[in-house]
Each structure stands twice: as structure tokens, then as C-alpha cells.
Amino acid sequence: MEYKVKIDSFEGPLDLLLHLINKLEIDIYDIPAAEITNQYLLYVNTMQELELDIASEYLVMAATLIAMKSRSLLPDHASTDDEYDEEEDTGEELMRRLIEYKKYKEAAVKLQELEKERTKLFSRSPADGLFAPVKEGPLNVTIYDMLGAFQKMTRRKKLSVPRQATVRRQEMSVETRMKMLMKTLHDAKVPVLFEDLFQSHEREELVVSFLAILELMKQNEITVMQKGSFAQLYVVSGGTTNDK
Fold first, then answer.
1. Rounded CA gap, 58 and 62, in Å?
2. Which pTM does this prediction carry?
3. For position 149, which CATH number holds?
4. What's the 3-state SS for 73-89?
5. Taking the C-alpha atoms of 232, 184, 49 and 51 in order, what is their torsion angle to the nearest 10 degrees?
């Protein structure tokens, strides 16, 4: 399957780490090296498996986390004072960068909220379709939310896969799968649960379906929604109203 997708939603390894810290409810001032490293590598491996075009900085951060995890698992007497100081410096530097990144990200969100409030000062015609969505609207769904949902879905697929041998289907292109997904969503006329769009147990078909969803999101043909942080994802035809 030769198909690579570049997603603009990747904001860097610090953004992924902050996502994991929020998801795992970890104290940013006391990050467990082993747990955060395992979760980070799971996401990076999923990106590579899907052949997403990710920057090398993700791999550099992965190497840093693996080194921190290795040192944390060693007995106290196995490391010298210099190695211990280096570990502390690396951990403190990472924590400092995360805290600084979080501040900037929260400031950016605040500015976006102020911008939205400012736009309310201008009158707009109801015909614009401004009030078509649900009042509260969907939460912002990031690429990491999508990857997390894909991970959970594939794990469940592996657990429920039938033991009998199955006949492999003919390989399907991303473009063909995009058309099939759009028809499914148009016919449904209501938000469809993310997992319900993955009927196959074949890895290749699961990957093609996921890439098709990402491409449809990129083209603003569909919207992926969440009713709460880290809740289940729902997909509906039609792009976001931000561009209207």
C-alpha cells in the first residue's frame, strides 16, 4: 500500500507529551519516566505503522524518553553521581519545556476565545447556517485523539478476530474507501461512532479506512466530534463551520 498522508495537526513531541499527561492524569511536576515513555512509543509506533509523515523530532524525543526510562529502572548503585546528575538535568529540562509549552498553548486558546467573542459583535444573517450545529458544538479533536481511538479499536479487533481462516479481500485504495465512507455517512444522516466505520479485521483495510478518514478531515468533508475529553469519537459528513 503506497500512500502517505501529511497531517498539519502534528504540533510536535511536546504537544503529544502534554496530551498524554492530560489523558493519564499525570502531575506535570512528577512525570513517571516508564509510563510516559511506553505511551509515547505506542503513539509513535502507530504513526509509523500508518506511514504518516512525522518529523524526526518525535524520534529524538523518543530516544530521550527511552534513556530516562532506562536510568530510572537501574538500581541506585548502578549509576555514578555524574550519570544521576545528567538524568536529573534531562528530566528537569523536559519538565521546564513542557510547562513553558503548556503556558503558550493555554495563551493561544485564550486568544482564540477572545477572537470568537469579538466576532459576535458583528451581525450575521441566520441564512449563513451559523446556528445549524448543536449549541455547545463538538470539542476540538486532535490527531492524537484519532490515534488513540485507532489504537483502542485495533486492540479490540485483535481480541475479537475469529479463529477460522478467512479469505483476504482485494486491496482497496484510499480514494475508493473515501467514497464509501462518504456514502455511509450521507446515508446515516446522524453522527456515526468512529469504531463503526471499521468493519474489517484485516490490518491493511483498517489502515486504509483510517487514512481515508484523515484525508476527508483534511479536505473538510467530514467532522469528527467528542462529547467530552477523551470520550468516544463520532463522525458526521460535512466540514466544520469554522470556515464559513
1. 6
2. 0.69
3. 1.10.10.580
4. HCCHHHCCHHHHHHHHH
5. -120
